Structures are given as C-alpha cells and as structure tokens.
Amino acid sequence: MLILNKKASDCSESEVTEKSVYLNRRQFMKVTGGIALGVGGIGNVTAALQEGNPLSPSSALKPSFGNIAETSFGKDDKISPYDVATSYNNFYEFGYGKSDPKDRSSQFKTTPWTITVEGEAGKTGIFDLDDIIKESMLEERIYRLRCVEAWSMVIPWVGISLATVLKRFEPTSKAKYVYFETLYDPKQMSGQRGGGLDWPYREGLRIDEAMNPLAFLAVGMYGSILPNQNGAPVRLVLPWKYGFKSIKSIVKIRFVETMPETTWSMLAPNEYGFYANVNPNVDHPRWSQGQERRLPGGVLFPNVIQTKIFNGYEEEVASLYSGMDLKRNY
Ligand SMILES: Nc1nc2c(c(=O)[nH]1)N[C@H]1C(S)=C(S)[C@@H](COP(=O)(O)O)O[C@H]1N2
Ligand SMILES: [Mo]
User: Fold this and answer.
1) Is 246 annotated as ligand-binding?
2) Is the Cβ atom of 192 under 6 angstroms away from ligand 1?
3) What is written in the cofactor note of this entry (predicted)?
C-alpha cells in the first residue's frame, strides 16, 4: 500500500474530541430532531434554523438518526476527532493522498443508490439502499479501525449488522463466500481515471466471517450520514481486519462458491492476503505490524500503542480461524 510521508500538521493533539463532547452533541441532535452535524457544525445549523433556511441536501439527516440504538461496543475507547476521521482517509477512487478523498468527493452523488445482489441466493436483483437498510434498524457501534499502514482510529459507526442484511437475500448452501464491489464511475471518481488499482475495488469474506455479529454495514458515523470520503452511502466495517477489507460505496453483493479475487491481494499477494486479520505476529514484508499510531498523533506525540491480535476482538472472532495457520493465511 502506498505510504505517504505524514505531515506533522495532519493530526495534532489539540484536535482530540472528548467522548463527552461527542455525546453532548448527540444529545443536541436528539433535541433538534436529528439534524446532521459535524464537529463545528453546530453554529451553522443553529444559524440555518434561526433563519428558517432548509438545510442543504447533503446535511439533511434521515429522521431516525436521532434514535440510534446504543450498544456497548467501544465503551473503553476514546473516540477519534471527527475532523481526523473525515480528512485522513484511504479512498483511492478519489486519489492516493490522505486528504484527496475529502477534497475531491464533495460532488459525489449518493442518492438514489442501488445494490445489485447476484449469485447463490434465493433473492437476487437490484435493490434500493433504502429498502435494504431500514432507518428503524440503525444502531451505533464504536469500533477500532486498524489500517494495514500501521495507524488506527476509533470511530462511532451507525448502521446494521451485515448478517441481518445478507440473510434477507437467502444465501444457498453453495454460498461459501460473499463478494463486494465498489461503484465504478470514472466520471465521478477521478482516481479511477488513472491506473494504480484494477477498478472496481473488490473485497470478499468467507460466509461465516460475513455472518459474524461483529461484521457491520455502515450508513453513518458520529450520528450523521456517512461523509462521501468515508464511503457514502454504504460501506463495510470489519474491525478485526485491516482497514482495506472495509470496502466503501458498495454497489454489488455476490454470493459465490469459491474464494473471490480481492483488490489488494490481486495487486500484491505476498503483502496482502485474503483474510487480512489484524495480527501483530505477522509483519508486512516492508514494515512491522507490532505497533500502530493511534491518531491523532503528531511528531512530538506519535501516540504509538501495541497492536492486538484481531485488533482486540479475539473473543468475538478467534473461533472463526481455529485450526488455521494465521501466518500462512495472512
Ligand atoms: N472502495 C474503497 N474502499 C476502501 C478503500 C479504497 O481505497 N477504496 N480503502 C480502504 C482502506 S485501506 C482503509 S484503511 C479504509 C479507510 O476508511 P476511512 O477512510 O473511513 O477511515 O477504507 C478501506 N475501503
Ligand atoms: Mo488501510
């Protein structure tokens, strides 16, 4: 994966958002009937409300976002600042630089959005995202995100368990794996007009991994709809795996019998495996996976922490891999 030199200005300690600030903001959203807010957005929204202006479509929140079910995930983790999670991104469809996705995705059109479901399942076809994910089902999960590049964040996602969604398509007994694809639209996604990756971005899971209760399909974060740079309008979140498995802006789900090809393992199979479980004991050929920089952290305070097996979700997922050699199946 491309490792770019990190500027000291990328993240600074002063950007840290305390959990209480975020939770207060969530409270505020409930009071105002569920209006989308980014950190620092309160002033703008308040002004808009006072003037009686309609909010722009991009910030209009679906009403039920004010009633997200809370879960116990991530209670002990300090949530990363909204500004860091939305400006330090990997989304190569919009460029390889960490700030490119934010800078280049503002015009990306995410409504209407359909997902094509194919393969070994009883119910296949083209479905509206709104029909797949009902607003009343949304819950919040605070998950650690560990990138294979050895940095990490803690993000409060809003969405629904992947298993709940997949089961509705009634996968058959031949569905041993599930494959996902990102939108291919070079007109909108400037990164796809160049080389680098073999577009569209592809990912996959073994069906039991996909059905594990930790696997999550997110449509929001920090209480609001997903910003485009974070994979709007719908993306995977697989917190025990390296971040590249958490494919963004999904347009296709295919149930298949054999292990599907996936973008990064096609590009560099000796560096990125199909499983890509977070594992401090299996180094990347070019760098250690024993530690990670928990963002934000600058030059003076790199905020390096030890990486945990399965990113600390061993209890939830280790049984999926019992008897497997994790050094070979990296
Ligand atoms: N379609 C697509 N999905 C993607 C990527 C990408 O380049 N394209 N990057 C992956 C990587 S490497 C990481 S670390 C996460 C980053 O998610 P975030 O930007 O929301 O933190 O998205 C993953 N999903
Ligand atoms: Mo990543």
Assistant:
1) yes
2) no
3) Binds 1 Mo-molybdopterin (Mo-MPT) cofactor per subunit.
